[in-house]
Amino acid sequence: MNDRILFNLLLISLSFCCCSAAVRTTKNEEIQKFTIQMIGYSPQKTDDYVAVSVEATPGYVVGFEPMAHADRVHHMLLYGCTMPASEQGFWRGMETCGWGGGSYILYAWARNAPNLVLPKDVAFSVGHEQDGIKYFVLQVHYAQPFAGEIHDFSGVTMHISQRKPMNLAAVMLFVSGTPIPPQLPAFQNNITCMFQSTTPIHPFAFRTHTHAMGRLVSAFFKHDGHWTKIGKRNPQWPQLFEAIPSKLTIGRGDQMSASCRFDSMDKNRTVNMGAMGVDEMCNFYMMFHYDAKLDNPYPQGAICAQDSPQLMKDYPVDGFELLPSRPELEHHAHQSKVPFGIVQEAIHETLGGVKLGQVAGLAFNNQKELLVFHRAERVWDANTFDNYNILLEKSPIKDPVILVISYQGNQTRVEKKLGGGKFYLPHGIYVDKDDNVYTTDVGSHTVSKWRIEGNELKNVWTTGESMLPGPDEKHFCKPTGITRIGDQLYVTDGYCNSRVVVLDLNGKRIQQFGLPGEEAGQFNLPHDIVSDSAGRILVTDRENGRVQHMTTQGHVIEEFKSTMFTNIYSAASHEDYVFMVPGRPIMGHESEGIAVFVGRSGTGLIEYAFGPATRGKREQMGPQFGQPHCLRVSPDGDTIFVGDIAEGKARLWQFKVQREESMTSMSSISIGWPSLAPADAKYNSFFVLLAIAILVLGAYCVRRRCRNLENGGSLFDKRVSRSNVGFKPLRTEETVGFISDGSESD
To answer: What distance in Å separates the CA atoms of residue 731 and residue 393, rounded to the nearest whole number?
Structure first.
């Protein structure tokens, strides 16, 4: 991407967001959610460091919710700064905080580490005069450029309370700069500092970080000649903060030491310490708390970088001994050596000699074949229906409208051609676990169940009165999508009725939910419906520009909504990810083209986006999405198909997901902490692993002092949650009734 394209991207992103970051707030009692995200960046080089900043909101951070994946991001590091390194809101390079104030590590993520929840009565103070944190700065390190047209929106959501806790949290970083000689099975890097503050500190969690050569990182402190372990961990495991099971107190005059063990047997040169992938790092992060009534022991930020060999002579042997192998943890933490990407693999205008009509629906069968539901020669435009939603063309489409295709790479083969003479205006299609095929026909206002017998499509039942639309329990009006969960079918009905109709497997109505409107659970043209891996539904609320994530009873769990799109035509779900595609670009930004947006279930936020290889360039430079109508992800998650209904340019787009291994589900991890007692009491012995991720040291010192950023007013990404909002880790022409897919109003 050249500088001009990047500059245009930054202008658009900045127009959508607040200081190049997302500010998303939802309140539940005293908890507020505040999100800072990358701006849709595509890394330009190996070891690409970039940062965004936003003005801090006052409060007390009690939890962190990462939004990234190790396929795309090497690490994220969240700082609290008195001043950011740049006044631009986004900048390249390793600088984070500027001169003239403090630099405080708040959070970090890497290697697919889970959420972080702090113990009761412990929080990071932010946004107050006394804590020195006026800005949040998110640094993101990309190990390598993406393959394909990918734009990243990785970020962190902070859970902020307005209640001041008994204890304030901070992070101390132990870091070594000693180079590693080659051909050694075990080389130790050591770090030592003396604690000088009169305010005692209490370590309650730790995390370790090295690059590929690290085998162990440990830390101990010495009081009155006695060593006490803070923690030790294999840095090749998920780099989360691990809870310390007993209460520790470090006081004035105590010695704090850390050590990193490296294996350099496969190296033929000295490896320096540094931030690049070819370098190494030796980091131990100690998260501690102190009494909120006392002075901050590290008012400018806590860092230890001294090497004092004479003070390490009696360092405990346990601090050097390797931990037992845990292959399952190393697999979960694995960072791909293959650049992540979603690469345009093919654009199909014909399949098996059949010229595609408007590609309205897509579905996969149990043989992993793709069913393409297209309209052949029929086109939906402003003259297709009358003002009462009655189809003007009374004859069915004579040609086959369902093509069953197998594919290998970009090569396809039509296995069956079905449905000639049976459909009037195809829209949605779905195949269940028993290989039953379900369709919606907006022309005939019907929903049907079919069986494929040989090369014939046999009707099992049809519900709705053919060719007659209506709002009652016996009619549909331009039904759009259908899916099955358990023994029930869910139909989006659709262009006129703005509801979801629930059927049994025989086509009998059970219930319905939804009304026209913009509130949660209301719809403005529900255009598509799919289920997620947990048996919930995702309803594409087209003209409200959102995807509503709902229970099967119609209760809204969350919504995916963003200023980056104003409409959503179709959605698909694979593992924890939700894929969404608009059918029209934002007015005024048509030249930027249309992208597919991908979010994480449980966050309601966009994590990255992708599109055609030449997205944002003129059609003469390469094909663009015209009017994407349907989107589906293959069962293995490796291929993504997009059906396009643009007039004269009906196409089936095929994208290949490039990665070293399948997207691993970011399943939620239950986090528990010991109860926090007064300073002279003991911790409860109950503990569990806690979450965060890797930190790589961003520059502590930067080039210049910067002016204050002004906080913009628009939202970047927005989520509305109707679940319990306490921090929980994850587990149109005239009216809506007269909108067509192909009319100028669309």
So the answer is: 49
* Least reliable range by pLDDT among 56-65, 81-90, 238-247, 700-709: 700-709
Sign of CA dihedral 272, 274, 278, 283: positive
391 annotated as belonging to a binding site for a ligand: no
Which H or E element spans position 390?
A: none
Averaged pLDDT of the chain? 86
Residue 75 marked in a binding site: yes
pTM above 0.70, yes or no: yes
689 annotated as belonging to a binding site for a ligand: yes
pLDDT for res 334: 67
Residue 175 buriedness (CB in 10 A; 0-12 / 13-18 / 19+): buried
Q: Which band of pLDDT confidence, cut at 50, 70 and 90, is reported for residue 614? A: confident
Cβ partners under 8 Å of residue 225, min gap 6 = none
Residues 6+ apart with CB under 8 A from 665: 533, 575, 576
Distance CA 167, CA 637 (A): 45
CA-to-CA separations, 540 to 535, 546, 732, in angstroms, rounded? 16, 6, 16
Cα atoms found within 13 Å of the Cα of residue 729, Cβ hemisphere only: 17
Count Cβ atoms below 10 Å from residue 555 Cβ, excluding itself: 13
Per-residue model confidence as pLDDT tens digits over 50-64:
999 999 999 999 999
555 is in an annotated binding site: no
Structure tokens at 315: 């360092």
User: Distance of CA 507 to CAs 140, 443, 481, 498, 537, Å?
Assistant: 51, 19, 15, 19, 19
DSSP-assigned states of every residue in 400-413: --EEEEEEETTEEE
Q: Is 141 annotated among the ligand-binding residues?
A: yes
The answer to whether 135 touches 51, Cβ cutoff 8 Å, is: no
Q: Alpha-carbon distance 409 to 657, whole Å? A: 11
427 is in an annotated binding site: no
Cα separation, 222 vs 315, in Å, equals 9
Instruction: Give CA–CA dist 155/160, Å, rounded.
Output: 16
Domains of the chain, earliest start first: 32-165 (2.60.120.310), 172-333 (2.60.120.230), 341-614+623-658 (2.120.10.30)
